[in-house]
């Protein structure tokens, strides 16, 4: 990655970037093919150590927040655990979703092999449909294909929560593997040469420790997501 990471917000002890789709936050044994990581790239870009205070999936783009000191890292991680950080995502999903829906569906912990692995954890996601579209692309027995552009607000922060919840209500996120629809993913690859997961961390809202004023960090859509918004005939008005 030759270009610098886009910085969306920076203070004395916090910095937020617009993480590209496909970039790992940090080195992982389950992704041995990766040679670049957000932690190292941002460290080299700023010339100082950085601490990711939360995580985004490799395939997810958007707002990623880092602390610049160990003490701020601990304080911000506590805010995330206490539910004091409001997160908003955008996703393009299969089919027509309800106008609004709360998905209250416990998920099994699958983020490691330590104590608690496999146990059910409470997981809640709020969905709001922003737009719907129907495009003249045959799919199965249907002459057209239908998609929805949705806003997702997780109340909890389980691993792959949004991906699993959308699959659970039968509106999987386009480009998601393994939780999505392989047939839809193949359709997007064939028609649009697109294999990015269409999940974008659009916004974080929080009050930094020691600060009186809340901070709102918003990430513009990245190129592939924006291209699919245009290709599927959604309107980009109001999404940036």
Automatic annotation (TrEMBL):
<protein>
    <submittedName>
        <fullName>tRNA pseudouridine65 synthase</fullName>
    </submittedName>
</protein>
<dbReference type="InterPro" id="IPR050188">
    <property type="entry name" value="RluA_PseudoU_synthase"/>
</dbReference>
<dbReference type="InterPro" id="IPR020103">
    <property type="entry name" value="PsdUridine_synth_cat_dom_sf"/>
</dbReference>
<dbReference type="GO" id="GO:0140098">
    <property type="term" value="F:catalytic activity, acting on RNA"/>
</dbReference>
<dbReference type="GO" id="GO:0003723">
    <property type="term" value="F:RNA binding"/>
</dbReference>
<dbReference type="GO" id="GO:0000455">
    <property type="term" value="P:enzyme-directed rRNA pseudouridine synthesis"/>
</dbReference>
<feature type="domain" description="Pseudouridine synthase RsuA/RluA-like">
    <location>
        <begin position="13"/>
        <end position="168"/>
    </location>
</feature>
<keyword id="KW-0413">Isomerase</keyword>
<dbReference type="GO" id="GO:0009982">
    <property type="term" value="F:pseudouridine synthase activity"/>
</dbReference>
<dbReference type="InterPro" id="IPR006145">
    <property type="entry name" value="PsdUridine_synth_RsuA/RluA"/>
</dbReference>
<dbReference type="Pfam" id="PF00849">
    <property type="entry name" value="PseudoU_synth_2"/>
</dbReference>
């Amino acid at each position: 990655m030759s270009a610098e990471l886009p910085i969306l917000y920076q203070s004395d002890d916090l910095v937020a970037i617009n993480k590209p789709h496909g970039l790992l936050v940090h080195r992982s044994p389950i992704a041995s093919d990766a040679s670049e990581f957000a932690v190292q790239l941002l460290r080299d870009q700023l010339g100082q150590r950085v601490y990711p205070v939360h995580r985004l999936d490799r395939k997810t783009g958007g707002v990623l927040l880092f602390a610049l000191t160990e003490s701020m890292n601990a304080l911000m991680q506590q805010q995330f655990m206490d539910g004091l950080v409001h997160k908003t995502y955008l996703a393009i999903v299969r089919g027509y979703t309800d106008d609004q829906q709360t998905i209250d569906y416990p998920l099994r912990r699958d983020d490691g092999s330590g104590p608690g692995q496999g146990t059910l954890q409470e997981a809640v996601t709020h969905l709001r449909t922003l737009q719907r579209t129907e495009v003249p692309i045959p799919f199965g027995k249907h002459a057209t294909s239908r998609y929805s552009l949705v806003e997702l607000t997780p109340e909890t922060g389980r691993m792959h929560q949004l991906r699993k919840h959308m699959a659970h209500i039968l509106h999987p996120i386009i480009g998601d593997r393994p939780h999505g629809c392989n047939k839809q993913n193949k359709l997007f690859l064939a028609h649009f040469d697109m294999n990015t997961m269409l999940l974008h961390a659009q916004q974080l809202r929080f009050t930094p420790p020691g600060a009186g004023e809340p901070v709102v960090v918003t990430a513009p859509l990245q190129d592939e997501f924006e291209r699919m918004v245009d290709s599927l005939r959604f309107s980009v008005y109001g999404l940036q």
